[in-house]
Each structure stands twice: as structure tokens, then as C-alpha cells.
Amino acid sequence: MTSLSTDAPAASTARSGKRAATPESRPRQSFWARENIAKILFVVPAGLYMLLFFGYPVAKNLVMSMQDYTTKTFFTGEAPWVGFQNYITVISSNLFGPALLNTALFTIASIAGQFAIGLALACFFNRNFPLSRFLRAMLLLPWLLPLIVASATWRSILDQDSGILNQFLGTFGVPAIPWLTSPDVALLAVILVNIWVGIPFNVTLLYGGLQDIPAELYEAGQLDGATGWKAFRYITWPNLRPVVSVVLILGVVYTIKVLDIILGLTNGGPANSTQTIAVRSYQESFVNFEFGVGAAFSNILIIISLVFAVIYLRANRRAVDE
Amino acid sequence: MKKQTKTRLSKFLAMAAIAPFVLTACGGGGNSASGDASSLTLMDYYNNDPDKALIQTAIDKCAADIGVTITREVVPGKDLIQKVLQKSSSKTLPDILMLDNPDVQEIASTGGLAPLSDFDVDTSGFAQGMLDAGTYEGEVYGLAPTANTLGLFYNKKLLADAGLKPPTTWEELKTTAATLTAGDQYGLAFSAIATYEGAWQFLPFMWTNGGSETELDSPENKEALQLWKDLIDSGAVSKGAINWGQGDVKDQFMSGKAAMMINGPWQIPALNDDAALEWGSVQVPVNKAGQTPTAPLGGEVWTIPQTGDKAKQAKAAEFISCFTAGDTQVALGSERYTVPTKPELAKEYVAKMPDMESFTEQIANARSRTGNLGAEWPKAATAIYTAIQLVLTDKASVDEAFAQAAKG
């Protein structure tokens, strides 16, 4: 799907470029010709926007991470330069290792869960049945709830004594699980809630991808005996791959920086068992007022997301090349 | 011909697209005129009724008294400090600023607040703990009309049924809580959450036992930690406490799932809403006979930011004097279930508000969180709640917890 849509404009520009190069068709134009100025003017707003809202914060964050930036700085404007001291503080802190590990576990498990359930639901909704549209719309609900509301609700659902989940499991004889109060299961609980939040995103994109697979392929496959699991393996999956890569990479970038759900559910506890790099960054900046250290944490996070963004761009380009 | 109009049109469109950027660049706000002190700005975080309306009434009264109009901006409690920092970097701080008392020294250390002595504000007659909270490097930067603290609430009916009296010592607390634990009901509830709230709830036990935040690894602090661990391990307090905020604790108490709770007087309006609930309150229990129950002091302090406008600052100082005067204290105290910060008002206040007797006694000896450590308090608070969490989840022993937590 991606390959088709991106191929078309690329081909047309290549053709028009060839035509412009032939001297007979048009006289040579100077760079400042009206048409070029207009083109540049069209790019300027987007460029300004990028500079203002992406360039400035990123640059400011980089500078801030090399400064002793505290509450005082806001009033006096003074922020002594400390070089890489903040990064040393971050990496040598006791919580850095566990937070990094938790970030990885949180991201991988969340993505795996969201994707598996999302794909299953997308396939389910792909066979149009009565009420399927309505149910699919209902599935978007987690997306519509403000995360702070969702996490407050989940907090009461997951309460050890009176939470509805433990009450429900109790009817099957399962002993009360200390979802948010035991360091052994708190991360799992947070991951489960994040999976719940992420399912609509996965279902929506994957459902769109499934809709784009021509029905003829399945009909032809059926004649050759590819039905059920085989149809999925040899028809659905290969055709869905471009969408899958988009879903996974965007999912990683969205999940790695998740903050509100964790703050709302556990605030990094119990006993620091749900600390992630994003939570550390928030707490250093807005709880301990160590903005320099907080900026260092967030830059580490940015670098990790950047790696995945590059993978995404490369994967996309490969799809175009194919 | 046709092509030319098209390029002209597209050029026009491109210009139009840029226009907003250029226009907004010129639209920066100018400085407010100085010298005219007839209108002041004020910022606080009472964004929910009834507090919002009650504070508004008190503000209006003082504004009328000193002859100014006051424009009030209310922000959610969590956003206040961020807002203050933003406003101080853009030099748009309000003329009167309310701060939660443990934040005063942090903000005063930035140089963003004016000492009240600059404007001859009378700071005599206030409780020492409250003055300590508003003091940074020997100068008082803010005053509070009323204060709150923590105490032990108990369900009168549940205790009477079991033939028990409210506990006064840790030993009694343990046995009473254990006796009241049955079925769905726990003996006691407190908040041991991984935020400053958890540290704040632990302080009454730590301080009453003679412990201090300056030396976290002391035997006194460990004893207090051991008490919490015993209470949780014996099942007298739910393990859920590890993730409960003080609002959750109140819910547990009100639903009858906890017979006693550690909480503050700001919960009283909610408790009184339930006519069937009979509750009483006492000061926090002590470890050994002879100790003084010592709880942390809560409450909001009103300050004068350095706005550079002397005339307005002087008016703001007049406002703070009025807002923290005796009659305002008693009025706000009885409406909001908070205790006047002038000890001389205690008798008059308790006569009016018998429900608040134990809290008024508690306030007399209450201590401010930042009195010893100032701007370093957040670090100690983080270490305290981390140590609590480590112990209650069996990740560290009582002996090691504070040392491990201090490492960060």
C-alpha cells in the first residue's frame, strides 16, 4: 500500500524533471524566478514551524542538560555550565539501570501485547458481521478517555482488597493479587493497562491495512487451497507487512515515553519498581527541581527514540525501493 | 495568461500562510504600568469549592478594607510551581502569591520573593512552626492565616462496640488496630504512597519519637519505620496503603473498611456529609509515655513576589496583614476546618469548633517540614518515602532502608 502511493509522485517528478532539462521546451530560468520564490514561500511556514516548535525545544533541552539549571535559573536567568556532569549524575545514579531495564520491559511487553491483541481484533472485525461497525467504534473508547481519568479508574479497579478485578478473580478462587502494591507485579499491572490503552491505535491501523488487501487474492488463494491459517500466513501477512512496520515503530516511539499512565497508577513505586527513564526525567525536573538532570534523562530518551525513528525511515525507504 | 494568475494566486496564498507568524511576533505583551497600586493580581491553588468560594470571600473583604481591586488567578495545585517558574522567567509574577508552605524556601532561595520586613509587616504572635516554614535565611517571606496537620481519626461506633478507647501509645495503637481487624475491616489506614504525601504521613511517627530528617538513619526513625512494618505485617493495615493517597484513606475509613485512620482536618467536611458516621479525633499516639505528639504543619503561605513595583508591593503587604489578621483567621479556620496560626486564638477557636480540639492542640507543637533543611527538604522527603516503600514491600530491612533510600 505504502509502496504504491509513494511511488506515484516520485515517478511523476522524475518525468517532469527530464522535460525541464531539455533546452527546447523552456528557456533557462534564474533561481529567483517568480515560480521559485513562490515555492520557497510555501516551504517557509513549515520550516518556521519546525524551527520554533521542534528545533528550539530540542536545542534548549540539549543546552539545559549541560547546565546547573534549577528553580533559581527561572528568576535570575543564571545557569552555570557544567558540561557532562548531569549525564554522569544520571548514569551513576542507582536508579538508572533499573529504570532503563523497566523502560525496555515496559516497551517490549506493551508493544507485543498491543500488537497481538490489536491484530486479532482487526482480523475479527475484518469479516463484516452485524454490529461490527458499532463494536469497532466502541473499541476506540480508551482512546477518547483522558489518560489521567483512565489511570485513576484503573487504580481503583486494581486495588488489592476492594478492586473489582480481584473481586472477580476471587469468585474463581484466585487469591487477591497485590497488583499495584507489590514490586513483583506492579510493572506487569502497568503494562496491562498500557496494552489496554494502545489497542485502539493498533486495531485502527491494522484494520485499515486489512481492508486494503484485495478480496481477489483470497479468492484465488481459496482455489489453490489456501484457507484459514494458510491464507493468513501467505496472503494477509505479506500484504500487511508495510502497515505492520509502521504500527510497530510508531508504537515503540509512543510507548517508550509513556508518563501519565505510570504517574497515575504508581508514581514510580512501589519501591521504585515501575521507574522508567520518562518517569525519572519528570521527577528530576518537576519534583526535585533539578532541571539539568531531568533534561539529561530526557535526552537519553530522545536518542533511543531517534534510533527507532531512523529504523522506521529506512524500513519505509526499503518498501519504496521494492 | 492563465498560468500567470495561477502563480500570482499561489504567491498570495504563500504570503497569507506566513502572515500569522509575522503578526504574532509583533504581538508580545508590553509591561504593565507601574505606580498605580489600585489594582493587584493574586494567584492561588484553591480551585475547588467550597475552598475556592470561601477564600474568594476573604479576599474580597480584605480588598475592600485596603481599597484595591484584586484580580485572582486560580491554578490546579499540581501546576502551581510550574506556573510560578514560568511567570518568574517572563517577569509576570502576580502581586500576591500563595505557596504551599514546604515550597516557600525553594522559591525564596531564587530571589523571587520580597522579605516581609521590607514592608514592616507585623509577624509577631504567629506559631513558631508556621513562621519557620515561611522563613528563609533569617527573613520571613510569607504568613499563613490558618494551618492544618495530621491526627488520628477513629470510628466511635466500632471502638465502642469493641469496648476500646482511642489509643495514645504505639503499643495501644497496635493492639487496638489488631482487635478491630476482622473480615473486611482493617484496624487502621494510612497513606504510604511513593510521593511526598507518604513522607508527610510518616512524619508524625518519626518526629513524635524524637527522630529528625537531618539524620535519617537514626534509631528513632527506624523504630517508627518498624511500627509501620509491624502494622502492615500483622494485617491490621491493608497492604493497599502502599499505593493509597490520603483521599483513598478517607474513603476506606468512610466505607467502614478501616476503623481508624491517620488524616487531616480538611477531610472533616466530607466525613460530616455522612450523617451515619460518628467519628472522633485524637492526637497521634506516642512511642513512650512522656513524648510530645509532634506532627507536620500543613497549610498555605501568602507571599509578595519581587515584581519591581514598590507601590503595589506595599499594598500587597497591607493585604497580607489583613488576610492573616485574627478575625480572618477565625473566620477562615471555622469555615475551612483549619486551625488559626496565632496560638492566642486557640481558646476562642475551639469554643466555636469543638470538632477541632485535638487538631488545635496538635498545631501548638507542630513542626514545619522545611524548618531544618530548607530547600534540601525535597531530597529528604524522597528518601523517606522510598525507605517506607522498600521496607513495606520487603525489598530492604528496617535497618538498611534509610541508607539504601538515601543513595537515590
What distinguishing features does this structure have?
heterodimer, A: 322 residues, mainly alpha, MetI-like fold, 0% strand, flat, disordered N terminus, B: 408 residues, alpha/beta, D-Maltodextrin-Binding Protein, domain 2, 2 domains, five-stranded mixed β-sheet, four-stranded mixed β-sheet, 17 helices, 13 strands, 46% helix, membrane (chain A), transmembrane (chain A)
Question: What do you see in this structure?
Answer:
The complex is a heterodimer of chains A (322) and B (408). Chain A is mostly helical. Chain A has a single domain (84-321), classed as Orthogonal Bundle (MetI-like fold). Helix content of chain A is 74%, strand content 0%. Chain A has helices at residues 2-21, 34-64, 71-76, 85-92, 96-126, 132-138, 141-144, 147-157, 164-170, 186-211, 215-223, 228-256, 260-265, 277-287, 291-321. In chain A, α5 runs antiparallel to α12, α10 (186-211) packs across α12 and α12 (228-256) runs antiparallel to α15 (291-321). Chain A is flat. The model of chain A is unreliable at 1-24 (pLDDT under 50). In chain B, 46% of the residues lie in helices and 12% in strands. In chain B, α2 (51-66) crosses α12 (310-323) and α16 (377-392) runs antiparallel to α17 (398-406). Chain B has a five-stranded mixed sheet with strand order 2-1-3-12-6, sandwiched between helices. In chain B, strands 9-10-8-11 form a four-stranded mixed sheet, with helices on both faces. Chain B has a two-stranded antiparallel ribbon with strand order 4-5. Chain B is globular, with a radius of gyration of 25 Å. Chain B has two domains: 39-148 and 298-364, D-Maltodextrin-Binding Protein, domain 2, CATH 3.40.190.10; 151-296 and 374-406, Periplasmic binding protein-like II (D-Maltodextrin-Binding Protein, domain 2). Chain B has helices at 2-26, 51-66, 80-89, 104-108, 128-134, 156-161, 170-179, 196-208, 219-233, 246-254, 268-273, 310-323, 326-336, 346-352, 357-364, 377-392, 398-406; strands at 39-44, 69-74, 96-100, 135-136, 139-140, 142-143, 146-147, 151-155, 186-189, 258-263, 279-282, 300-303, 339-340. The model of chain B is unreliable at 21-33 (pLDDT under 50). Chain B starts with a helix and ends with a helix. The chains are: A mainly alpha (322), B alpha/beta (408). Chain A: InterPro entries: MetI-like (IPR000515), MetI-like_sf (IPR035906). Chain A: One of its GO terms (biological process) is transmembrane transport. Chain A: It is found in: Cell membrane.
